[in-house]
Amino acid sequence: MAQDSLLMSALSACRSKLSAFIRGRTSVREDADDILQEVTYKLMQVEQPVENVAAWLFRAARNEMTDRARKKRELPLSALLDGDDEADFPEDELAETLFGVPETPEDEYLKALLWEELEEALAELPSAQREVFEKTELLGYSYNELAEESGASVQALLSRKHKAVLSLRTRLRSLYDELTAE
Questions:
Q1: CA-CA distance, 55 to 6, in Å (whole number)?
Q2: How far is the C-alpha of 78 from the C-alpha of 91, rounded, in Å?
Q3: What single-letter DSSP state applies at residue 101?
Q4: Which of 38, 81, 117, 181, CA to CA, is 20 to 30 A from 70?
């Protein structure tokens, strides 16, 4: 308890400087806030005493920013194509239906139908592929966290997820085609 209160008072003392430091090195305010929150969380998880909390926080913030910069950003294929080809890649529309707020009873029905199909498609995947897809896409795990948890390499996890995405894309594409057929 005493350790936690010392950490919190040290964090409070340098929070504004740390926040300014992070914001000066990130282009998106939400990213800066996320990094500050992540660093604070990591500080709370430290089991050994930290002699210089301010130095630890700035080093952890630099490390977090470096990790995020190295992390590959996934873009939907439709973002890489011309506007004319967008109809060939329904991922954005499916994602909007799955994760968006339904506005009509038809939207609610379609959302339930898509979730049901997604769950069935996920159940058909090999368990390793399903686990990687669910944890990275639905539960927000990073590949590094998942690699640490599972003991598999990040490269192996990327490969499994790629195979899962291809399979799900094929499976959900046929559903999309059925729903949009006129």
A1: 15
A2: 8
A3: P
A4: 81
Q: In whole angstroms, what is the distance from residue 118 CA to residue 134 CA? A: 11
Helix residue ranges per DSSP H, 71-135:
77-80, 91-99, 105-124, 127-133
Task: Please answer whether residues 97 and 107 qualify as being in contact, where contact means their C-beta atoms are separated by less than 8 angstroms.
Answer: yes
CA distance 47 to 71: 27
| pLDDT tens for each residue of 16-34 | 888 888 888 887 788 888 8
Q: What is the pLDDT of residues 139-175, one digit of tens each?
A: 888 889 999 999 999 999 999 999 998 888 888 777 7
**Cβ neighbourhood burial of 91 (10 Å; 0-12, 13-18, 19+):** middle
DSSP label at residue 153: -
